[in-house]
Amino acid sequence: MKDLTRRSFLASSLRAALFGAYAVNSSAQAQSTPWSNWSGGQTCRPAGRYDIASEDQLIELLNSTSGPIRPIGSGHSFSPLIPTDGHLVIIDQLSGILDYDSSTLQATIGAGSRLGDLGVALDDIGQGMLNLPDIDRQTLAGATATGTHGTGITLQSLAGNITSLRLVTPEGEIRDIDASDGDLFDAVRVNVGALGVVTQIRLQNREAYKLKKREWTAPTEDILTDFDELAASHRHFEIFPLVYSDYSMVLSIDESDQPIGQTIIPAEEVTLADLRPLGVDATPLERLTMNNALAANAETSEVVDLSHKLLSNIRNNRFNEMEYSIPAEGSAECVREILKTIYDQAIDVAFPLEYRYVSPEDPWLSMAYGDEPHATISIHRTAREDYRPYFDIIEPIFWKYGGRPHWGKIHSLGHRELSQLYPRFRDFMEIRQSLDPNGRMLNEHLKNLFDA
Ligand SMILES: Cc1cc2nc3c(=O)[nH]c(=O)nc-3n(C[C@H](O)[C@H](O)[C@H](O)COP(=O)(O)OP(=O)(O)OC[C@H]3O[C@@H](n4cnc5c(N)ncnc54)[C@H](O)[C@@H]3O)c2cc1C
């Protein structure tokens, strides 16, 4: 009980709930050993794993094998994009900066590069990526394939910053694709790993830069009411609405020229004498009372650092996640409805939601495709728990608000629903069919998405 009175309890316990140490699957294991994704929720026993060292080797592999091919990144997708009894292709060796231009601030990067390895390498050539997702363990090819995004109403997903890429088609042909290829370029930037194997990506970057991150807690309703204004006034702005609470953890990030360093601004000491520790059978009201008292007294922290050190985090606790992208206008109501549903149905979950805005963009299968900003809302369940009962209750709420599921996260939609949500979905399917006439890039999950 004494520990609960510490000012930093809320911040540290929430961070611990969300952010634990991750372990990356080794991508160079022996053939036919089982594969599993980061959360352990997806597994398979592939016929072979090929850790290719060059495009020539990749083409030889494609020409000398038959059956399904699944390119893998770092296995950080929650949805069953990878599982196959066919062949896994690993392109970790195709990594690093291959070429760059200091006048356009563009760089061509090996598609197997881990995002987290690119920060220092780009810094060395005076460049910085425009944005990064919540973690940086993903490969560039894997992250762009699923439309992976960060936070920021003016900032596009990683795929939105692609100026060209190289695709090795399942037929073994090398295609260099850029905006002059029109529809093909719009199809291939967010490709869900269903068009071929991407080996190089040229990114639009900017000059290297520093950021200042501020984290605090505030009443959820106050923030939701002002969310548009707050999102417009910060380079990055997002909240983690706490369940069974009237509060959210709030995060803003802006450019800064201050010296690198961290400041903790303490809150008032909280007195929890009237609160008793909560057991598993705590009522929603008991949880609310406890969480509000903790949240109201959490500290504020500010940190200044290089952009690539501040934009992503380390997440220790393994979890599974569902995320839907919905038009930003009206999205606050969706957050309210999810929080109310959790409370009313006494769903036993401790993870906060995550609510952020992303810029509109034009890759056909981007979750933010179109002219309007989108909000993304995530729910999480620890990896040791069955996520289905919780996600099954919340998923229809996302549908009510016109939500598009994140390709790399849990969802239950197939091509019928997806073709209603993406105006160019059928065009994507046609291009897919032309690049992969024998369906080698499809596993069972992808057949359900694209093989109408
Ligand atoms: C802790 C955690 C935090 C996350 N945070 C965010 C976030 O902030 N924002 C967000 O949008 N998402 C987030 N995600 C989701 C994650 O970014 C995506 O699922 C991403 O696709 C994972 O990248 P990966 O390299 O692990 O690819 P994998 O999961 O291994 O593969 C993803 C897809 O990419 C394809 N692929 C991989 N390599 C190639 C290639 N060379 N050519 C063609 N296709 C290829 C695969 O076939 C597959 O379809 C998070 C996931 C985790 C586990």
Total count of helical runs of at least 4 residues: 14
Termini Cα gap: 57 Å
CATH topology of the domain at 210-405: Vanillyl-alcohol Oxidase, Chain A, domain 3
Low-confidence runs: 1-30, 270-276
CATH architecture of the domain at 210-405: 3-Layer(aba) Sandwich
Q: Can you identify the CATH class of the domain at 210-405? A: Alpha Beta
- Largest sheet, described in full? 9 strands, antiparallel
* The CATH superfamily title of the domain at 210-405: FAD-linked oxidases, C-terminal domain
Written account of the structure:
Helices cover 27% and strands 25% of the residues. The protein has 452 residues and is α+β, with helices and mostly antiparallel strands. The protein has a domain at 210-405: Vanillyl-alcohol Oxidase, Chain A, domain 3, CATH 3.40.462. The strands form five sheets. It has a nine-stranded antiparallel sheet with strand order 16-17-13-15-14-19-20-18-21. A hairpin with a 5-residue loop joins strand 14 (236-241) and strand 15. The chain is globular, with a radius of gyration of 22 Å. The N and C termini lie far apart (57 Å). Flavin-adenine dinucleotide (FAD) is lined by residues 38, 70-77, 81-82, 91, 111, 133-135, 138-139, 141-143, 145-146, 148-149, 192-193, 197-198, 315, 406, 408.
Topology:
Blueprint: H1 9-18, E1 35-36, E2 43-44, E3 48-51, H2 55-64, E4 69-72, E5 87-90, E6 97-101, E7 106-110, H3 115-124, E8 127-128, H4 140-145, E9 162-168, E10 174-178, H5 183-188, E11 197-204, E12 206-207, E13 210-219, H6 220-225, H7 227-233, E14 236-241, E15 247-255, E16 261-265, H8 284-296, E17 300-306, H9 307-310, E18 319-327, H10 331-344, E19 354-358, E20 374-382, H11 388-400, E21 404-405, H12 415-421, H13 425-435, H14 444-450
Parallel strand pairs: 3-5, 4-5
Antiparallel strand pairs: 1-2, 6-7, 7-11, 8-12, 9-10, 9-11, 13-15, 13-17, 14-15, 14-19, 16-17, 18-20, 18-21, 19-20
Bound molecules: flavin-adenine dinucleotide (FAD).
